[in-house]
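Cross-check.
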Amino acid sequence: QVQLVESGGGLVYSGGSLRLSCAASGFPFSTYAMTWHRQAPGKERELIARITGNSDFTQYADAVKGRFTASRDNANNTLYLQMNDLKPEDTAVYYCKVSAYLRDHWGQGTQVIVSS
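Predicted model, tokenized:
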């Protein structure tokens, strides 16, 4: 079955960096676009980044453009999100997602807290 496991979250100060990982299994990873989402306390989950299967196209929400970079290692079935210049408003639970086999599959999420 499809499994997604995020890791790499934590507590960081404003201006700091983190790299999130999403280990994928149960589907042909390289053939699927992947997305990163986040959900801040009291807010709806939002799409922040998308990357195609062969990494030829990436797309970002305005709130993270220029600071976050999505990438992937298809040989190791792993998705990444490099987050630089973090701000307190980036505090959220971060999720990876794949739409495969007629449904969306989510990881359990990883918490990112940015302190000022």
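The chain has a mean pLDDT of 97. The chain is about 0% helix and 55% strand. Passed to J.P. for a second look.
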